TrEMBL record:
It holds the Pfam family DYW_deaminase. It comes from Populus alba x Populus x berolinensis. GO terms for molecular function: zinc ion binding. This is DYW domain-containing protein. The lineage of its organism: Eukaryota, Viridiplantae, Streptophyta, Embryophyta, Tracheophyta. Residues 48-117 form the DYW domain. Belongs to the PPR family. PCMP-H subfamily.
Length: 122
């Protein structure tokens, strides 16, 4: 038996953008998305958010766990949505697997710090 790799997708301008976890540059605007995640990370830390490493399945140090959590597909899709979806329009991210607890918490804080309460599915 084998588990399907996690992926998330978002539709922007009638085009579906698919993201996979692990930080592999699978999107043409990957660098821009990572920059957005970096800026969001600073806002999240200011808001008191701390990544929950218990959702990382690997036996790695804390820094690597934080890095691994940052690269979850739903966070990449949300960052892309923040870059491309106009304010006031819902950011609707779909996923093939369930959302981990850290991503759920992170996206709730992202909504608070960005003033965007139009995330659907979280």
């Amino acid at each position: 038996m084998r588990k399907s790799p996690g992926c998330s997708w978002i539709e922007v301008d009638k085009k579906v953008h698919i993201f996979s976890g692990g930080g592999s540059p699978s999107h043409p605007e990957h660098e821009m998305i990572l920059k957005k995640l970096g800026k969001l990370g600073a806002l999240l830390r200011e808001a008191g958010y701390c990544p929950d490493g218990s959702f990382v399945m690997h036996d790695v140090d804390e820094e690597d766990k934080v890095h691994s959590l940052r690269d979850h597909s739903e966070k990449l899709a949300v960052a892309y949505g923040l870059l491309k979806v106009p304010e006031g329009m819902p950011i609707r991210v779909m996923k093939n697997l369930r959302v981990c607890g850290d991503c759920h918490s992170t996206i709730k804080v992202i909504a608070q710090v960005t003033g965007r309460d139009d995330f659907e599915g979280y």
